[in-house]
Write a structure and sequence with these properties.
alpha+beta, 12 strands, 336 residues, Arc Repressor Mutant, subunit A, 13 helices, single chain
Length: 336
Amino acid sequence: MLSNSSNPRPIDHLTGMLQSLRLDGIEYGRRHLDGSWAFSFPQKPHAYFHFVGGRACWLLTPGGEWLELLAGDAVLLPRGGAHALASEPDAIRQPFPQWQCRPLGEDVYDPSAMATGSNCLLFYGSMRFNLDSLHPLLGMMPEVMQAKELMRHEPATLQLLDAMACEMAANRVGACGIVARLADVLAAQIIRSWVEYGCAGASGWIAAVRHPQIGRALAAIHSHTEYDWTVEKLTDLIGVSRSGFAAKFSNVVGETPAQYIAQVRMHQARYWIVRDNARISVVSQRLGYESEASFSRAFKRVMGVPPSHYRSANAESAAVAIQFVRDGSALPGHLK
């Protein structure tokens, strides 16, 4: 763990920004589609990805724009925006039959059994990142990341998708964890290909990643969330003058360095509390706060509620789970 008195080594911008991005759950499968077809996908708190392995199809973006997806293309919707996929824009849409998904394990589902036809080979996935949609890293990303010709730029993509399908079909011990890790790689490949080849413009997230100074600063912030970053420490790390850095950061990112750092750290704190069930006192120490009270004030200022709110929610969820087990009922949220 990085101490507040040490300096992290410089790392690749994209690697640093995505280092904390992991998957907690995934739905994944493939479907062969013939003739005219169209499916709608609702807004959800998880990311979506699609890979087109056969005939071209169309994507209706959350903003209402139709984009053509050619064979070998992939798209990632990091904030899970409502969208549709269709053989042609005027095809009659129906909800994607997610209820047919087969549960393979906790938070891992397989819709592969729905395969029919052979014209358009569509790989579908829904990823649950360990960061919520309000996290500044996901908040900076566009609604849609289209990785054009992903197969050409990432030739191992098809083998990766096949490996995911094989793990699901075999249903061996540890398959769920392996599928999630493979999906980690797939998501990173889509994002990397989009950064390198998919963007003609240089605004928003892509501008932040490509900017030589801001990109390094963001990589450092995201790869070492426990470090007590300040403008002075960031400028010392990346070797630039402090004059104008804060203004340049605000112009590219949309927030001051202090605001962005605070959000990243408090979202990390929330993750520890919710996912790891960490005590508030432990979290405040990990982030370098002198007292639990000062950490709680900072947390509420950024998140809108005190950290105890999430501790209470955890306790309530655990109580519900215990009661369901005692009653002999299935836990809520599991697909049947």
